Amino acid sequence: MLISTATAADLEPIQLILKGAGLPTSDVAPALLASFVVARGEGDAVVATGAVQRAGADGLLRSVTVLPAFRARGVGKQIMGALEARARYDGLTRLYLLTTSRTDYFSRLGYERVAREQAPEAVRITAQFTDLCPASSTLMVKVFNKG
């Protein structure tokens, strides 16, 4: 599975994958594409995606999804590994995420639940936090070691 930074040609496939998973797409636009990575299957088709949106010294993990036919094959873990590597490379201190259904999955990857009120201001003002994800979403965080 090839994991790479999304290109302009990936915008529509990313939006389709997210819509199919019931994830928000209203702010997924060309300006945001540089924050996305994609996994490509046969024929160069996008089969998984995810993004890290910078929020001050931290990042907001978003839009992580895998097409149903490619689940349970480790593709999600590969996307997460690429996103976390990028976050570390960019010097981010913590990576936050909001989820309504995947807390167990993200816990296995080292993310911990935190109260929404504990999110830093830069995360709390993102569209994901304020508008796109329901207030019932669970906030999780992974702290990167700085050493």
Structure description:
This protein has helices spanning about 10-20, 75-90, 105-110, 120-125, 125-130, and strands spanning about 1-5, 35-40, 45-55, 60-65, 95-100, 110-115, 140-145. By secondary structure, the protein is α+β, with helices and mostly antiparallel strands. The chain has one domain (about 1-145): Gcn5-related N-acetyltransferase (GNAT) (Aminopeptidase), CATH 3.40.630. It has a seven-stranded mixed β-sheet with strand order 1-2-3-4-5-7-6, sandwiched between helices. The mean pLDDT is about 90.
Describe the oligomeric state of these chains in a short phrase.
single chain
Count helical runs. 5
Q: Mean pLDDT across all residues, rounded?
A: 89
Roughly how many Å is the radius of gyration?
14 Å
Question: Biggest sheet, open or closed, and with what strands and sense?
Answer: 7 strands, mixed
- How does CATH name the architecture? 3-Layer(aba) Sandwich
Strand residue percentage: 25-35%
CATH class: Alpha Beta
Low-confidence stretches: none
Summarize the helices and strands and which ones pair or pack.
Blueprint (H helix, E strand, L loop, with lengths): L1 E4 L5 H10 L15 E5 L5 E10 L2 E9 L8 H15 L4 E6 L3 H6 L3 E3 L6 H4 L2 H6 L5 E6 L4
Parallel strand pairs: 4-5
Antiparallel strand pairs: 1-2, 2-3, 3-4, 5-7, 6-7
List the main descriptive attributes of the protein structure presented here.
147 residues; 7-stranded mixed sheet; single chain; Aminopeptidase; alpha+beta
